[in-house]
DNA sequence: TTCCATGTTCCGCA
DNA sequence: TTGCGGAACATGGA
C-alpha cells in the first residue's frame, strides 16, 4: 500500500511512477477496469479499454519523456499510454482500502488494485498500437536520458533558435521529458538565465548545459524524484518565494516562456 | 474573491 | 509557411 500522487510529473517523476507500476503490477491478471471519469480516456472508448485489458496483464512498460507506455499481453501487440498532466499519479492498494481522492480509473487485479489519479485531469489514458507511431505522430523529440539524445543533436537543434533557452528545454519536440521545474534546475546548475536566447549560447555553455541535463535528471531519479531529499546545491530545495540560493543571494522569479521561473541572478548570467 | 498552479494544445500574429 | 507567445483547458488551494 503506497500513495503516490500530487507529484511533479516530469521525466524523473514518471520514471519513478514506471518503477512503481513495474514493481506492483507487472504480470498480474487484470480482473476489471473501472472508469470513474470518462473524460480521462481522451477519445478512447470505455468499452475498448475494458475489452483490451480485462483478463490480460501488463507485460512491461517503457517511458518516453513524460509518457509511460504499458504493453498489454493479449497476443497481438497493444499498449496503453499514461500521461500524468500536471498532478497525476498512481497508487496501488489492497482491497480493503478505499481509492484515494481524484481517482479517475481503477485497474483491479483480484484483491488489489491500481488507481490512476489526476486532480485537474490534464493528463489522460489512451489505447495505442505502437509507442513508436505515437511518438512520431506527436513529434516528440528523443527522451532526455536516452542514447538518442546526443550532444551533437542538442547543439545542432538549439543553434540559431530565437526562443528562450528555457522554452527550448521545455519543448517536447526538441527533447522529451523536461518541464518547468527541471528546466529551472538545469539552467541553475549550468549558470544560465532562463530568458537567454537559445541561439546566443556559445559552444562551451551549450556543452555544459547538455551535461547538466543528464546530471540533474539522473540525480533526481537517484533520489526517487523526492525534492525534499535532493542535495542542498539543488535550486529545487529553495525554489519558492523568499527562497535563498546556497550562494547567499535571493532566489528570484519571473515569467519566462509563459511560466513562472525561479533563478538566482547572482549565479546565473 | 482573485490569482495561481508542475502540461499540452490550439489560435492568431509576425 | 513556419515559428513563436499567449490563452484555453479543468479543478482546487492559498
In short:
The protein has helices at residues 11-25, 46-53, 131-138, 151-158, 165-170, 180-190, 203-222; strands at residues 32-35, 58-64, 67-74, 76-83, 88-93, 103-109, 112-118, 124-128, 252-256, 259-263. It has 269 residues and is an alpha+beta fold.
Question: Could you characterize what this model shows?
Answer:
This protein has seven helices and ten strands. The strands form three sheets. Strands 1-6-7-5 form a four-stranded antiparallel beta sheet. The protein is α+β, with helices and mostly antiparallel strands. Helix 6 (180-190) packs across helix 7. The termini are far apart. The relative contact order is 0.14. Helix content is 28%, strand content 23%. A hairpin with a 2-residue loop joins strand 2 (58-64) and strand 3. The chain binds a DNA duplex (14 and 14 nucleotides) through residues 7-10, 13, 39, 66, 83-88, 102, 119-123, 162-163, 167, 170, 172, 179-182, 257-260.
- Summing up helix and strand content along with how strands pair, one would put the structural category as alpha+beta
Number of strands: 10
- Mass-distribution shape: globular
Residue windows where pLDDT falls under 50 for at least 5 positions: 1-6
Distinct helical segment count: 7
Helix content: 25-40%
N- to C-terminal distance: 46 Å
Strand order, largest beta sheet: 1-6-7-5
Q: What is the H/E string? A: HEHEEEEEEEHHHHHEE
Overall average residue pLDDT = 91
Largest sheet: 4 strands, antiparallel
Percent of sequence in beta strands: 15-25%
**Whole-angstrom Rg:** 20 Å
Task: Spell out the blueprint of helices and strands.
Elements: H1 11-25, E1 32-35, H2 46-53, E2 58-64, E3 67-74, E4 76-83, E5 88-93, E6 103-109, E7 112-118, E8 124-128, H3 131-138, H4 151-158, H5 165-170, H6 180-190, H7 203-222, E9 252-256, E10 259-263
Helix pairs in contact: 1-7, 4-7, 6-7
The chain binds a DNA duplex (14 and 14 nucleotides) through residues 7-10, 13, 39, 66, 83-88, 102, 119-123, 162-163, 167, 170, 172, 179-182, 257-260.
